[in-house]
Every structure is written in C-alpha cells, then in structure tokens.
Design a protein that fits this description.
This protein has 195 residues and is an alpha+beta fold. The chain has 2 domains: 1-98, no CATH class; 99-195, no CATH class. Helices cover 36% and strands 16% of the residues. The chain is built from 6 helices and 11 strands. It is elongated.
C-alpha cells in the first residue's frame, strides 16, 4: 500500500453486497492514513500532509489493527494531532479515534485568506470602513459574521470565540486524553498561537 504499507490481514478486507464493495473499517482507516502521508496526489490537494509520516510499526496493517481494536474506534475517525498539537507522525502514542464533529472542530486551522491570520478574511473587492471579517462555528453552527477595521481585531475575536468553543466541546468528552488535548488546543487559541 502506497509503496510502504504491508497488508498482512488474515481475513477478507472487502465484501461485495448488492454489487457494492465495502472495506473493513479498520483497513479503510489504515489505508487512508497511508494515503494522506505517502501519496503525491493527496499532497497536491492537501499540502499540510506533505511532511506527515506513519511510525514504522504501523506500516504493517496487523500492528495498526491490534492497536485500533483496543481503542474506542467504532463510528469514529483517526486523528494524529488532537493529543499533540502540530504533530506530524501517526503512532500509538499520538493518535486517538474521535467523532466526526470533534475531528472537524480543529480542521479550520488552515489559512483561508492569503496573508491574513487564521479565521480572518479581508474583503479587498468591497470598499468599506471595516474590511475584515471573521466567523466561527459555535454549537455546530456558524456565528454571525462580524466586521472589523483591522485584521488584528478580527483575529482576536476569532481566537477567543474558537477557544471558548473548543473548551466547551472538551468538557463534554469522556476520554480524558481527548479532553486534555482539546484543552491544550483551546489554550493555543486564547494565546493566538493557532497551529
């Protein structure tokens, strides 16, 4: 798999049902992890993964699977950087399975407006006194977009709002590792140090 992974599964990883092919969910998670780290096409679409890697042990599917079945994995997604902000290596020490909503909570890290801070958009094509805006998802819904005179003002409001939301979600987590990781991310937002 991807020139690096070894599929040593001792069972069928796919089944055909009604003409549709279904993968073992743990195999699918392993395959997706390898593709994110070692596929040039994926890196072209998602450049933040270009310098990511998978620990050597997890190059072997059965090793990854043995770890995964010991986790609360069903209906969840594999995450490499909730526990360790900025982490680039998938491993048993750095990964955890989380719900889709928790995984998406931190996915807005990438800059979406050129040179502006994360979460800030500059409306260059529309003349206005307050050309900067920001919005953030709170309780799973976008907050009202607000406008600011400077990108610094917008960034400060975004960081506080996002930090509050990450803290709120963290306190709902039953997995203490996920709670601690999210609280660490919230601190980074409050300090304006979004990774």
């Amino acid at each position: 798999m991807c020139g690096i992974g070894i599929n040593d599964a001792d069972y069928a990883i796919t089944v055909q049902v009604g003409g549709k092919r279904y993968f073992c969910p743990l195999y699918a998670a392993w395959r997706s992890m390898l593709r994110r780290c070692y596929t040039e096409d994926y890196h072209n679409r998602h450049p933040t993964y270009a310098d990511c890697a998978v620990c050597e042990d997890w190059h072997v599917f059965s090793v990854f699977r043995a770890w995964a079945v010991s986790q609360d994995w069903q209906d969840k997604q594999l995450d490499k950087d909730i526990l360790c902000p900025g982490n680039k290596v998938y491993s048993a020490e750095t990964c955890v399975f989380v719900t889709n909503s928790v995984n998406n909570l931190l996915s807005g890290h990438a800059k979406w407006s050129g040179d502006e801070p994360v979460g800030v958009y500059h409306h260059r094509d529309t003349p206005r006194r307050k050309p900067y805006s920001t919005s953030c998802f709170v309780f799973g819904k976008p907050t009202i977009k607000r406008y600011f005179a400077t990108s610094q003002e917008a960034s400060k409001v975004y960081s506080k709002t996002k930090g509050d939301e990450v803290t709120r979600v963290a306190m709902q987590q039953t997995d203490i590792r996920v709670r601690a990781g999210l609280l660490l991310h919230a601190k980074l937002y409050y300090r304006g140090e979004v990774i």
